[in-house]
Amino acid sequence: MKKAIATNKIYALVLASLLAGNALLCSCDSKAQETTTESATETEVTTEEETTTTGPRWETTAAPENPKDTTPYEKITLDGSPESTFISTDFCYIESEKYVLLLDRDIKLPGDFVINVDAIINEIEKQLGVPYNPDYIVYDKVTDCSSYYDKTDENGNLINPWEGWDIGTKIPIFLVTDREDEGRIPCADSTFTVICDYAMFSDDLWNSIPSYRDNAWRRDGAIDYGAIAHELTHTIAWRNCDQTDILSEGLAQYMEFEVLDALKAEHPSVVEYLKNRSLEESNIPQTVNAKNAEQLFIDDYHTLSHADRGAQYYFGQHFWQYLYENCGNDCFVKYRNNMNMKDIHYNPASYKDSTVKVIAGIFKDLYGDDVFSKFGNWCVKNNYLQNKNY
After folding, report:
1. What pTM was computed for the model?
2. What are the residue ranges of helices labelled H in the chain?
3. What is the pLDDT of residues 131-143, one digit of tens each?
4. Are residues 227 and 317 in the same domain?
5. Is residue 298 part of a domain?
6. Cα–Cα dist 116/66, whole Å
7. Which domain-ending residue is among 233, 263, 292?
8. β-pairing verdict for 108-110 and 171-176
9. d(Cα 1, Cα 182) in Å, to the nearest integer?
10. Which is it for strands 92-95 and 137-138: parallel, antiparallel or unpaired?
11. DSSP conformation class of 90
12. Which residue has the higher pLDDT, 9 or 155?
């Protein structure tokens, strides 16, 4: 069986302003806020300022006793209402069918958050045509992400609250804060997804940090479901097969738009995010055409600095868009099947021209030797990737 790839490469949402590698470390720890039990007859509607009683909302469940197989922190159940709010006061977790949310303290979530994440994962699987949990992977216990947290034990060692926890095939999704304002950003690989979103910071946390409190523009109030769709696409796609940077970032960028567009009709919180979404701009080193499209694909923009990596996102986004619009909705499935059949493994952190040429050959075998030149012509025709300041 294939083991889940724990790549050193961490994929982040930020396009034109990607931060240095150490900015990807996210700080996290939190426990459940005490609320009603399953036998409660009333509901607590929790806000930052007060708690009022109106019927059953949050439920807490004591964790099982064996810390080797679980976690000592509490399990939380959200009520499903976008009008209610849960705020963590210590490590806690929320478990769904396909993932486990691992919460830092001072994380604020609306009651419909799980409903929305469930829908995002289901839609990613539908759009990609692959499962979140392919059966040819060996799934390890929750990755040691103690470096994402700022809470230490009595000896000053960082605490890993999820140490030794086996959640099976479910995706561990870390919801973390950034108490030192280090510029931490969402990231993912095949073994986990990390979401760091200002809109998820409690008001108490936000107001306690001057650089946040004094710059209200940094927090628009809408949870970034685009970042969640983007990073979960990374995790699900990498669980299924390896990709180059262009393919990985482009797929996540493309799926972010497709997934949210498919969900907006039935998910008001997604609509609220879309109303507030601001699209990033990036620099394209050179315009794309029929003559250079294949070589740009092979080069994978691997020599670009982090600040210029937006080219990988936009080239890849339009490449997948071209394939999905012109070659069928099974293009990722076909790519995955060929990668796995040929046993091709690739880590973009260690760029290899020869391997990327083999990957380019997969698309030529699937869609013709002229697939890249056709893509370049399509870009010119539709005015995609034609402006250096994209």
Report:
1. 0.83
2. 113-128, 203-208, 210-213, 225-240, 245-263, 268-276, 293-299, 310-327, 331-341, 353-367, 371-382
3. 999 999 999 999 8
4. no
5. yes
6. 31
7. 233
8. unpaired
9. 39
10. unpaired
11. B
12. 155
Kindly state whether residues 296 and 181 are assigned to the same domain.
no
Q: What share of the chain is helix, strand, coil (3-state, %, to 5)?
A: 40, 15, 45
Has residue 31 been placed in a domain?
yes
In a domain, 336, yes or no: yes
Model pLDDT for residues 236-293, shown as the tens digit of each residue: 999 999 999 999 999 999 999 999 999 999 998 988 888 877 766 667 889 999 999 9
Domain count of the fold of the chain: 2
Look up residue 3 and give its amino acid: K
301 Cα distance to chain centroid: 22
Say whether both 214 and 301 belong to one domain.
no
Q: Which residues pair with 187 in a beta bridge?
A: 12, 194
Residue 2: its H or E element: strand 2-3
Q: Report if residue 256 sits inside a domain.
A: no
Q: Do 16 and 130 fall into the same domain?
A: yes
Domain boundary among 198, 233, 268: 233
302 and 220 in a common domain = no
In this prediction, residues 31-45 reach a mean pLDDT of 33
Number of Cβ within a 10 Å radius of residue 173:
25
Residue with tokens 């216990």: 141
Measuring CA to CA, which residue among 140, 100, 103, 134 is closest to residue 118? 100
Asked if 211 and 332 sit in the same domain, the reply is: no
* Residue 99 to residue 117: CA distance in whole angstroms: 9
Other beta carbons within 10 angstroms of residue 264's beta carbon come to 16
| pLDDT tens-digit series, residues 170-194 | 999 999 999 989 888 999 999 999 9
Kindly report, residue by residue over 64-99, the tens digit of the pLDDT: 444 446 788 999 999 999 999 999 999 999 999 999
Phi, psi of 201, deg, nearest 5: -80, 135
375 has pLDDT over 90: yes
Tell me the residue range of the domain where 325 lies. 281-382
Q: Which amino acid is at 298?
A: I
Are both 172 and 289 inside the same structural domain? no
- Tell me what the mean pLDDT of segment 151-157 comes to: 83
For 253-320, the DSSP string reads HHHHHHHHHHHTTT-HHHHHHHHH------B-SS---TTTHHHHHHHTTTTS-GGGTHHHHHHHHHHH
Cα–Cα distance for residue pair 309/197, rounded to 1 Å:
21
Do 39 and 183 lie in a common domain?
yes
